[in-house]
Amino acid sequence: MDTVIKVKNLSVEFKTESGTFTAVENINFDLKRKKTLAIVGESGSGKSVTSLAIMRLLAQNGRITNGQVFLGDKELISMPEKKMQEEILGKEISMIFQEPMTALNPILRVGDQIMEGLRAHTKMPKEKAYEISLEILKKVGISSPEKRIKQYPHQLSGGMRQRVMIAMALVLKPKVMIADEPTTALDVTIEAQILRLLDDLKKELDTSILFITHDLNVVADIADDVIVMYCGQVIEKGNVVDIFENTKHPYTKGLISAMPKLDSDGGELMTIPGNVPSINKRPSGCYFHTRCSECMDICKTKAPEDTDINGHMVKCHLYNMKGDNSNA
Ligand code: SF4
């Protein structure tokens, strides 16, 4: 299986008024060709920081302190800034966000915005860029594309604006699209349409998707592979079937128990007690021990190592101590 992005030992820290803290800690994962890898976790887990670090778009107080990110044979962290801007961002790696209005320019027509990115990277004539922009709007399912291409973002519905964002992200046929909670602001019907669209386009355009979400129902719908993050660490990693059917980590089990089910009788959902500790208040030992129903003495003082069980990785003492304990 081809690997499109390889993240190796990536760590990120942030400087705040109360000190410097690690937001992402030594994480490793691969994004495979034509596959969707979901990064899942609660707010504060480090999932968005990870995606921004890959693109080197961290906020000013953020810094990559260790690690490498390979896009094929190109290493992105050490790449000169100019080369990154000209050759990678928008062209080989593109991004779509939760709220298109923050990414779309309100005073530019939709067509001009798509053409702008296209021409910046290819220098193609305006007529050709217009033709390709119209084509991509059709591909993302925009109705009446000849009319929409001349409209401004505020004249479009939320679902249509998200389709425009996807068109902008895919017009240069990037190898990778990073989607950060792209459907969270949409209603469930439009969300299902957008998820199906992303899945179809991924296969058609030979793109791989890194999908950031807190929603495990979305993960079940769209992901091939999953990493679960907690307090800046990858605590479980595997293919989507293993993650849901052979769940190992107590945190992932908690997230799955908290999923609203379509056939639910409206009864109370299970929840994980407490909250993700803030970046400057991470506990000793296993970061999850303050919320874990299976916490043992060792968990309070010693950080668990990664344990690989037939390609399914888990960071938890239950497995460090017992090897593969499927019933743990
Ligand atoms: Fe729970 Fe201990 Fe495993 Fe952490 S290491 S998840 S506290 S059992």
Q: In order across it, which strands form the biggest sheet?
A: 6-7-8-3-9-10-12-11
Tell me about the largest β-sheet.
Answer: 8 strands, mixed
Please state the average pLDDT score: 91
Instruction: Pick out the low-confidence regions.
Output: 323-328
Output the number of helix runs: 13
| SSE string, helices as H and strands as E | EEEHEEHEHHHHHEHEHEEHHHEEH
| Termini Cα gap | 31 Å
- Number of extended strands: 12
Bound molecules: iron/sulfur cluster
> Rg, please?
21 Å
Proportion of residues in β-strands: 15-25%
Portion of residues within helices: 25-40%
Give the overall shape, derived from the CA principal axes: globular
Query: Structural class of the helix and strand makeup?
Result: alpha/beta
Task: Please describe what this structure looks like.
The chain is α/β, with parallel strands linked by helices and about 325 residues long. The chain contains 13 helices and twelve strands. The chain has helices at about 45-55, 80-90, 100-105, 110-120, 125-140, 145-150, 160-170, 190-205, 215-220, 240-245, 250-255, 295-300, 315-320; strands at about 5-15, 20-30, 35-40, 60-70, 75, 95, 175-180, 210-215, 225-230, 235-240, 305-310, 310-315. The strands form two sheets. Strands 6-7-8-3-9-10-12-11 form an eight-stranded mixed beta sheet, with helices on both faces. Strands 2-1-4-5 form a four-stranded antiparallel beta sheet. The two termini are about 30 Å apart. Iron/sulfur cluster binds next to helix 13.
Topology:
Elements: E1 3-16, E2 19-32, E3 36-40, H1 47-54, E4 62-71, E5 74-75, H2 81-88, E6 93-96, H3 100-103, H4 110-122, H5 126-139, H6 145-148, H7 158-170, E7 176-180, H8 188-205, E8 208-213, H9 216-222, E9 225-230, E10 233-239, H10 240-245, H11 250-257, H12 297-301, E11 306-309, E12 312-315, H13 317-322
Parallel strand pairs: 3-8, 3-9, 6-7, 7-8
Antiparallel strand pairs: 1-2, 1-4, 4-5, 9-10, 10-12, 11-12
This protein binds iron/sulfur cluster.
